[in-house]
């Protein structure tokens, strides 16, 4: 089938590339001409394992291309996906200006049978509102809500083998086109949820919010474990074996971050409030996650300076800047937020990240950036693990034992082997385990 994507950011690029991989002809449109030129040469602007290969293959076999011009790029396309960003506005609501700008550009060019598919995460009711907006201009194109559930760092596998595909549409013509687009996945047995637009949009928000609640919950359990000498890893395993709870997204850490959970949970809390149904659970989760960063800072400060709580001029080797491993994304990264708080306390920070330093430099220019773990560890009063990169769990900390000033490792992701680290002479502090 012939498909266009408006927006070649994270979701547009990955979704467009994978839909070309499963056999469709895809054009991804973006108004950034230099990005489009680079993409057409196979240069990928984001770090996502496996993406470059798929883009290369499909550029070569001409099933995928990138364009700036919208008018020519939507001609003859059966479905036009909107995959632009929906950032948080200052009041926490979702800013839909990019979505409507895309619709406004499209409306001049649409032919009657073309469907518009909203891939961006939008508040429930948006698809219906867009449908009405088009109708007022005499356009009867059907609007489908088809939220995306892929995770950064695992996006290709998530798109190819999703737990489910959600399709919100009010007309059968649109649902049929969507079934054909996803046929290669549906034929493999992937479950499809057909519903109305608003429910489809709410499924996306509810899924992200529920996962965020799970993480905030397990992080609070980790605090309790520390207080009563219990073990959070065993606790997660123990409750996760209950299939009603499930074992995913139950890893305690420095709090959830990224471009999705913090934004989506704010948007759903905002929506609930504006419906006069304030969500106690969402608001508590936002507060719990916010408090988490401060708790982490207190933990670090205590580990570094006991009761005195003075970390001025202490050197911290910070390992990890991204919001999780296998991405270069530092948006709402707990690592960055924790480092900002440590800077306020006048610590000296030397950071290393396998992929996120360039992005981190843009928002945190005040710290020192090292090219290797070894460089970052030199003269450090502690090694602080903030992101669960495999490079950090594979690293032999014995190799830097003679370089650091104090042998202290604070592991906020519980990725190291405690016994091994202690044998190497380090004091080891982690999350939810004493
Ligand atoms: C999340 C959802 O998992 C995807 O299903 C969804 O499509 C995506 O948002 C989106 O809305 O676009 P993502 O933000 O890539 O995906 O990352 P996650 O793997 O869900 O992690 C989010 C945050 O939670 C990270 O900071 C991560 O470190 C943290 N986390 C995750 C934990 O602290 N513990 C866990 O057990 C899992």
* Spatial strand sequence of the major β-sheet: 3-2-1-4-5-6
Give the C-alpha Rg: 23 Å
- Bound molecule types: uridine-5'-diphosphate-glucuronic acid
* Largest sheet entry: 6 strands, parallel
Mean pLDDT level: 96
- Strand portion: 5-15%
Quick one: how many beta strands? 14
**Principal-axis shape:** globular
Helix vs. strand class:
alpha/beta
Output the number of helix runs: 18
Percent helix: 40-55%
Alpha carbon gap, first and last residue: 56 Å
- Which stretches of 5+ consecutive residues score pLDDT under 50? none
Would you mind describing this structure in some detail?
The chain is α/β, with parallel strands linked by helices and about 425 residues long. Helices cover about 45% and strands about 15% of the residues. It has 18 helices and 14 strands. A six-stranded parallel sheet has the order 3-2-1-4-5-6, with helices on both faces. The site of uridine-5'-diphosphate-glucuronic acid has 20 residues, from helix 10.
């Amino acid at each position: 089938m012939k498909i266009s994507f408006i927006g070649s950011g994270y979701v547009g690029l990955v979704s467009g590339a994978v839909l070309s991989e499963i056999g469709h002809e895809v054009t991804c449109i973006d108004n950034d001409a230099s990005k489009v030129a680079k993409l057409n040469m196979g240069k990928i602007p984001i770090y996502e394992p496996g993406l470059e290969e798929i883009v290369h293959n499909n550029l070569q076999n001409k099933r995928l291309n990138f364009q700036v011009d919208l008018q020519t790029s939507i001609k003859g396309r059966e479905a036009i996906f909107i995959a632009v960003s929906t950032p948080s506005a200052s009041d926490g609501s979702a800013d839909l200006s990019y979505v409507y700008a895309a619709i406004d550009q499209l409306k001049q060019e649409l032919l009657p049978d073309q469907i518009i598919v909203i891939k961006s995460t939008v508040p429930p009711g948006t698809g219906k509102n867009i449908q009405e907006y088009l109708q007022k201009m005499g356009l009867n194109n059907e609007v489908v809500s088809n939220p995306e559930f892929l995770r950064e760092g695992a996006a290709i596998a998530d798109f190819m083998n999703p737990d489910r595909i959600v399709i919100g549409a009010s007309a059968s013509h649109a649902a049929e086109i969507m079934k054909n687009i996803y046929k290669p996945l549906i034929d493999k047995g992937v479950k499809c949820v057909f519903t109305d637009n608003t429910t489809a949009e709410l499924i996306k928000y509810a899924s992200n919010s529920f996962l965020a609640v799970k993480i905030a919950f397990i992080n609070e359990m980790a605090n309790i474990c520390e207080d009563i000498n219990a073990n959070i890893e065993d606790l997660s395993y123990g409750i996760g074996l209950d299939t009603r709870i499930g074992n995913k997204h139950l890893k305690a850490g420095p709090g959830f971050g990224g471009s999705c959970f913090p934004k989506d949970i704010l948007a759903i809390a905002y929506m609930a409030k504006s419906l006069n149904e304030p969500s106690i659970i969402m608001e508590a989760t936002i507060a719990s996650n916010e408090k988490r960063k401060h708790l982490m800072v207190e933990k670090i400060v205590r580990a570094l300076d006991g009761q005195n709580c003075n970390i001025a001029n202490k050197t911290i080797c910070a390992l990890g800047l991204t919001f999780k491993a296998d991405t270069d994304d530092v948006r709402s990264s707990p690592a960055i937020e924790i480092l900002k708080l440590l800077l306020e306390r006048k610590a000296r920070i030397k950071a290393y990240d396998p992929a996120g330093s360039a992005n981190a430099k843009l928002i945190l220019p005040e710290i020192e950036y090292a090219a290797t773990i070894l460089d970052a560890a030199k003269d450090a009063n502690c090694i602080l693990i903030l992101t669960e990169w495999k490079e950090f769990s594979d690293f032999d900390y014995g190799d830097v034992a003679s370089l650091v000033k104090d042998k202290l490792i604070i592991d906020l992701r519980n990725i190291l082997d405690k016994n091994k680290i202690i044998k190497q002479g380090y004091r080891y502090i982690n999350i939810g385990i004493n």
